[in-house]
Amino acid sequence: MVKNFLLIVALAAGSGLAVGGLLAPTDTFAADSVSKKVGEPLEVAIAAANKGKYTEALASVKKADAVSGKSALENLKISETYGFIYLKQRNYAAAATAYERSLESGQLPANKVNDRVKQLAQLNFQSPRNLEKVIEYATRYLKATGGRDAPVQAMLGQAYQMSGNDKAAVTSVQNAIRVAGKPEENWLRILLKSYGNLGNAKGVNDTTQTLVRLYPTQDNWRLLSSELRKQASGDDRTALNVYRLMSALDLMDKPDIYSEAAIVAIQSGLPAEAIKIMERGFANKVFGPKEEARAQRILADAQKKAAAQQPLLGQLTQTARSSTAGRDEVLLGEVLLSYGEVDKAVAAGKRAIQKGADPDEVWMLLGRAQVQLKNGAEARKAFAQVKGEDAALVAKLWGIYASRI
Length: 405
Prior knowledge:
The chain is mainly alpha-helical. It has 23 helices and no strands.
């Protein structure tokens, strides 16, 4: 009877459970005895659970549990059976409680303790999450096994992040990446969020590049653009380049994003670009009744300013060419590019370099111009020249985008 019970548990352990599996029986377990009063209802419980009859299964295990004078081994088997049933039901909190009793009983074979500790970390990570327990058991497991389990390192990192300890989250996920070699997509998302919370611009920079390079999905670009907008807050030039990248990637899907981008463009002296932004927003029907009036005002303002600016492009070109300030050429190049005069914008950018303009501004301009010309290789070369901390982050992402061309 005991051997039959153990065989049933062994088969259950390999039946594709949601998280981990029941502790497989060992020779040590098989050598011990279980009384008929305990063993028979446990057999019935396992059989019922395997058929999805969980009410019947729990009733049977409770019958075994009610037997007086049980041995430590019998209590262990009862806890294991409770855990198995609850796990089949996806009642992870109850399963964790049952398996925790098994661990604390001191009856588990020594070579199975670490597996159980790992399983408890995994179970407590399921809904409803018990983050303190996740951290406790994951840390214990990693310490006992040398920290070479990358998924558990990453799970610990996410638990730390959800607990508000971003510094520890970064350390744990970095450990996971060192062990695994190639990071999983979710690991990078955890890093990105924690670096953002910590205000670590370099961490955000490095992680965003890795994320979109390895996993260039629309969702990841959208996630990154959201983080970049936060990073660029207060810097109109960087913010505008973020909005431009979002537009190129078709990630502008909210009315406030269109409005903010257009306002920044207008304030930067680029009303023609603002018109394109707002017209795209209207074409995509992102403005609802509440946003319609404000959007129309922004568009009208941009149209009025563009109508006054466009006739003066020739004069602006002459003024910039006669100026010794490279910055004037950069501004001219931006204006010309906004009107679609790409070749003239490139020429202005080259003159700006000769006049000592801010190289980051110039190379961003030239990179974007090459994107419009569908020249991906030249665009990537230009973006690679951008060195400023904030500007380089956006430029490198532009470079990744240009690799699609």
